Amino acid sequence: MRILVAEDDIELSEQIKHALSNEGHAIDLASDGEEAKFLGETEPYDLIVLDLGLPVQDGITILKAWRDDGSNIPVLILTARDGWADRVDGLDAGADDYLTKPFHIPEFIARTRALLRRNSVQRNPVFQKNGVRFDSRSGRVSLNGMPVTLTAPEAAVLSYLFHNANRPVSMTELSEHIYEYGDDRDSNTIAVFVTRLRKKLGNDLIETERGRGYSIQLVA
After folding, report:
1. 147 and 114 share a domain?
2. What are the residues whose beta carbons fall under 8 Å from the beta carbon of 215, sequence distance 6 or more?
3. What's this model's pTM, rounded to 2 decimal places?
4. Which residue, 118, 146, 174, sits at the end of a domain?
5. Does residue 130 share a domain with residue 58?
6. Which of 24, 35, 87, 94 could cysteine-pair with 30, CB 3.0–4.6 Å?
7. CB 97 within 8 Å of CB 76
8. pLDDT (tens digit per residue) in 14-39
């Protein structure tokens, strides 16, 4: 999954990036409101972490602009403001959840997992099919009870396909959601990752829909 973290506190943003990267996500950072607004409008994120007190342009204004433009990307707002009115303003502007600073990283990670699952085919954090078990909380993968080791790109592809089960996902879409901003997004390498996943997890898990992409079919 690809996440934008819009936070002007460099130390905190790096802590957040480290924690989310350990979850297997691709992370882009924005340190002011103008950059955050631009990235949120032009890049296909699965989640945005938005500080309300950004310089240049504040988080509430940015969030309202995204929602007015039709964006439905889940947004978790961060705020140092502890007044209930500020939290209400954030939620009314279109935020999906909020955290007040300071916060504990484990709680932050749990909230991001919940928001990513909200747009998924299922609320259960554990995906299972054909003997394959993928725990989105820990990133652990097993086949018929035996642990399977995946590279970071393989895990990212598997996670995105599971979270977007029951529909075809093109190689272009996959490359946009597993690489960070500025990376060389060669969509042809996605086919390589899918081939490796099939070797490790079985040929029947990931289906090819000719001309449309790849899919994992789950019973909703």
Report:
1. no
2. 161, 165, 166, 167, 168, 169, 206, 207, 209
3. 0.85
4. 118
5. no
6. 35
7. yes
8. 999 999 999 889 999 999 999 999 99
